[in-house]
């Protein structure tokens, strides 16, 4: 870990302003991902701006009947919130499917959206990695890629966005609220928040330099049966091979976002539209144009089968 | 004391303490954080500095240059010990790969430097500043490619390891029912909770090493050989070990670099293997390829049995001999075992819990399941029909005490095996396909010479000293139980000091020999102490009864207190009579699994092991050993795999996020039943180890249950869902 300076921000615009003018500055909230990466010098910020005093840790009703979740609301607090559990069950379910209790007590809403890939080659600093060291190449392509992406990837990077919470936010049409150094606020639909890797896999979101997430808002509840189904190699404390976040309505229509396969929570409008026709049709549309490796082509089958299980659960009333 | 004939009647036949479930005497210290593990021994030497190891970025080749100047100038840095500046060191007898020194690179993450600084963080930061240039050489990292040309390993007699009995080829060709199947098992990491860790301190030419090691005497000899100094000038202290599983049988680079760094700085230096280094820097269980052929009559009696094994290792040495149990488990007149070893340039493969037998059962016990189905015979019954009278692979030998059939029958009864549907893929409940499976297991039960010293103080308390280790197994407690029983005092009157090379040399913890050997050594020392007491107080100790702190001889009654202070050394060694016997431990595993019909996820629903391991010294800690081994069996069967990158030549998933071991949510109800047997051939206490027995067959029972649930046979471990997803029933 490289030496760094540290300050506690006093307001969100101030934090953004400091970040914009300080080379190598990073925000820190729970630090559950950033600190690990700093120890390996995959992240080497010169300056840390701690957000814990900003009081961004509240969950409030919005005027239009939705919910505004402060950026530093912890995963544990969010998953336990009665309104979330009642009206946005897919979100509570997705959160508790991730990490461990201890990590969820520290990890925050905004930090979770910004967590970086778990590709093992990204983590091994001896290996080429375009995400860690742009232009160095991708060791994962042609390597051990069982966990990695099958769609939305590129010739430069086949890593995935590893999160669970983001899948739920994607089906709920969440909006990310930010503030920048000038105090300007903007709202970024979750669909536009993460980027596909393309030739620049080191740029993972559409946040501008210094731009700070202040909240995530949810539109008013959409009803339906909320399900989060995470398939992994062990029963707990592992990243998804494939995960499905779904909200299914009594008439069979619904929405789905799939994790473990792409650089971002993977939702395709045509696949949503095809849900009443069953898992096979929806999965085919969701994965149109996928480019799996020999190691991870099983994910194509797994997406379809997991979705079938989700739809069966929805039909049986399992979910919330 | 030489144990030179089967045990007759002993005081343990009427034991009040040995054989009773006894909470660990070291438990309160462990749960209160006051048991000092190696890295936390802040009090043993002042002014400790921190070492941080740098691992090689290439798997094979040489270092062209290393620039450590920035690291040496970094804040807090005291020294940088580099491999190119250090002549290649000696090698411990048990080490295969080089641990440090010189510019040659033999495997990925081989230690190439150690930065020593005032704080861990300074050492780590400076380590990242070292610039190393390499010349990469080609290596062989692919076992499947290397296996066809791999030579036979050397057997125990030094001859090529291929054993034949009768006419296997003829009998197999003529057999009415045949199985011929190929199985693979993966490279596995010990993944113990406590990383390898050492603190070294020099006093002139004398070295003290506080470390985490299973075998104190081996550690001392190895450090002597590696550093080129007299082992007598080295003290090893390893009182608490946070898991080993074979990974800490040997001196590793943490100990070597702590010693070199302490020398370079004139300070005490502590070094741990950082978790991401462990998989590639330390040892692992090598992958195997196994071919098993079984021929049987329609009555299920095996007529031909062949088990061939291929594994690979650095230097083409040792590897993983998965055939070890096969000459022991099942009858059959015509037999073949062969063990091949390829040369690979991966990190060093070496012992891990039940080396050989653990992956061997994953193949043999599935082959038996396949045979049972082909015969239309219950798998339990098939095994009972092939129960041998003498050791099948060595017909001149007898079994010392073998009760496998009891394990099988009592296990089947207890588990409710009769409810199993013999037709695979027929049972379901909601989203789950449900199946039952079983497997038998055999693990050899060796004993080793083991010594101890016992002190009696003036208050009648007993102190036991031996270099035996407790790697989480319960050694402290069974040693205290043995001393309490033999000296006739209550358990709270006994203290035990372990892991210090200043104490008499024990068997150490490895190969499932620790419990049997170390308790026998303590018994020998206690017998000598009783004799010394008899001499001092003037009675024949062999005719006396030691009980409740009193000594009774005829009508005389003396207090133990009257004899102290007094000390005695004792050592158990084991005579040649054992060569006429095969001394083994036996288990029958049963399990039930559910397989998700949609996703193929496997959930183990319940597990049972029925064990035959002679007298169980402490049923409470023995159970912990067995259920822990069953957990490791779940890992081997379902998820554990060091993934090899065959281009770069390393284990890719080299941390505990990538190398997945079972978590609590993976482990269901586990039951363990011990038969009430005694084995007079093993030791005076007639007790055998269980720590490695529990893993033998545990994973195969799971594999067989998965087959019973799904009708899908997967022969490549771990049985991850990607290997059978496309064969699961079509979903609507």
What does this structure look like?
The complex is a heterodimer of chains A (320) and B (732). By secondary structure, chain A is α+β, with helices and mostly antiparallel strands. Chain A has 12 helices and 11 strands. Chain A has helices spanning 12-21, 34-39, 75-80, 82-87, 89-96, 101-106, 109-113, 120-123, 165-171, 269-274, 279-286, 298-315, and strands spanning 5-8, 25-28, 47-50, 59-61, 67-70, 175-179, 185-189, 212-218, 225-231, 242-248, 254-259. Chain B is an alpha+beta fold and 732 residues long. Chain B is built from 16 helices and 32 strands. Chain B starts with a strand and ends in a 22-residue tail after the last helix.
Oligomer: heterodimer
Q: How many distinct helices of chain B? A: 16
Q: Helix proportion of residues of chain A, in percent?
A: 25-40%
Mean pLDDT of chain B: 97
The strands making up the biggest β-sheet of chain A line up spatially as 4-5-8-6-7
What is the count of helical runs of chain A? Answer: 12
Rg measurement of chain A, Å: 19 Å
Strand order of the largest sheet of chain B: 4-6-2-13-10-11-12
Residue runs with pLDDT of under 50 for 5 or more positions of chain A: none
Amino- and carboxy-terminal Cα gap of chain A: 44 Å
End-to-end distance of chain B: 71 Å
Which key phrases capture this entry?
heterodimer, A: 320 residues, alpha+beta, five-stranded antiparallel beta sheet, 12 helices, 11 strands, B: 732 residues
Q: What's a concise summary of this model?
A:
The complex is a heterodimer of chains A (320) and B (732). With 320 residues, chain A is an alpha+beta fold.
What's the arrangement of secondary structure elements?
The complex is a heterodimer of chains A (about 325) and B (about 725).
Chain A: E1 5-8, H1 12-21, E2 25-28, H2 34-39, E3 47-50, E4 59-61, E5 67-70, H3 75-80, H4 82-87, H5 89-96, H6 101-106, H7 109-113, H8 120-123, H9 165-171, E6 175-179, E7 185-189, E8 212-218, E9 225-231, E10 242-248, E11 254-259, H10 269-274, H11 279-286, H12 298-315
Parallel strand pairs in A: 1-3, 2-3
Antiparallel strand pairs in A: 4-5, 5-8, 6-7, 6-8, 9-10, 10-11
Helix pairs in contact in A: 5-9, 11-12
Chain B: E1 2-3, H1 27-31, E2 49-55, E3 61-67, H2 69-73, E4 77-82, E5 104-105, E6 111-117, H3 120-127, E7 131-136, H4 143-146, E8 162-165, H5 168-174, E9 177-185, E10 197-203, E11 206-211, H6 216-227, E12 234-237, H7 253-265, E13 269-272, H8 275-281, E14 288-296, E15 302-313, H9 326-329, E16 334-343, H10 357-375, H11 379-385, E17 398-399, H12 404-415, E18 428-429, E19 432-444, E20 450-456, E21 462-465, H13 475-487, E22 494-497, H14 514-537, E23 545-547, E24 550-553, E25 556-559, E26 566-574, E27 581-582, E28 584-596, E29 602-612, H15 619-638, E30 644-645, E31 650-651, E32 669-674, H16 698-710
Parallel strand pairs in B: 1-26, 2-13, 11-12, 15-16, 17-27, 21-22, 29-32
Antiparallel strand pairs in B: 2-6, 3-5, 3-7, 4-6, 8-16, 9-14, 10-11, 10-13, 14-15, 18-19, 19-28, 20-21, 20-26, 23-24, 24-25, 28-29, 30-31
Helix pairs in contact in B: 10-16, 13-14, 15-16
